[in-house]
Amino acid sequence: MSNDRTDSGQDGPSSPARPLQPPASSWSDPAPPDTTLRGPGGAARPWLVGGGALVVVVAVCGVLVGVLGGDDQGAAKSAATQNPAQVAKEKTFKTAPEECQLVKPDTLARIVPAGRCTPTPFSGEGPGGFLRMPSWESDSGSTLDVNLRIGSAAKSHYDMDKESALTGLKDMQTITGSRAVDGIGGTAYLIHAVDKEPFSLRNATLVVKESNATFTIKYTYGADSGLSEQQAEQYVTDAARDVLGSLT
């Protein structure tokens, strides 16, 4: 808005308004014409969905539109316009390693011994950012799932992931503890849950946001495994630090 008043409160001459411009960002560049979802190797990923993956499909469809389609560009520009100094100081992530390289081998050896990494057909790259969704499963049945997204809609994705972890399975799980966690990324939230009978699994879920990246680390283990919630919390924290360290 132009300044039309003098220091004395009287109307003064009006000068043309200078529009605020957000800092240049690779995330606000126009999308290229080829928006085909491609995996880390460059090959197109087919949309193979089995009946058992229905719940995953419902949760991921909105994510794919937001991340790979770049739907929150306007919100990012508005935030940059309102506080360009803060945005300029914040690191912007542009790349992520291949799915099975997000967590270090020594970390995986402690969390999911002899775990096998399984990429998903949902992972890929698009004009709006990156999506990585690997999963590791050990012989004992414990699993580690990572859901990473890099793009301009990080804040809305963080809120959505947090709400999903808290209420998405409320008919099947009981939340045994939840709290904010300091020292991991810019914002992080931890949720512990246990299956309702007749099931007997527990899980620790850590939702993290750092700059334009947001991700969820979920560790699932048996209720009779002897593992404490504190140990499970340490596992997801260690995996989260690996994921953060892998981003550039």
Verbal overview:
- It is built from 6 helices and 9 strands, in the order ααααβββββαββββα.
- Strands 1, 2, 3, 4, 5, 6, 7, 8 and 9 form a 9-stranded antiparallel β-sheet that branches.
- Strand 4 and strand 5 form a beta hairpin.
- The N terminus is likely disordered.
Brief overview:
Helix content is 29%, strand content 24%.
Notable traits:
globular, nine-stranded antiparallel β-sheet, alpha+beta, 248 residues, 6 helices, single chain
Summarize the SSE layout with pairings:
Blueprint: H1 54-69, H2 73-82, H3 84-89, H4 105-111, E1 116-118, E2 124-126, E3 129-132, E4 135-137, E5 143-151, H5 154-167, E6 173-180, E7 187-195, E8 201-210, E9 213-222, H6 229-246
Antiparallel strand pairs: 1-4, 2-3, 3-5, 4-5, 5-9, 6-7, 7-8, 8-9
| Through-space gap between termini | 37 Å
The count of strands amounts to: 9
Which radius of gyration do the C-alpha atoms yield?
A: 21 Å
Order of helices and strands: HHHHEEEEEHEEEEH
Largest sheet data: 9 strands, antiparallel
Number of helices: 6
Percent helix, as a range, is 25-40%
* Percent of residues in beta strands: 15-25%
Whole-number mean pLDDT: 76
Class from secondary-structure proportions: alpha+beta
Which regions contain 5 or more consecutive residues with pLDDT less than 50?
Answer: 1-82, 84-88
- Principal-axis shape equals globular
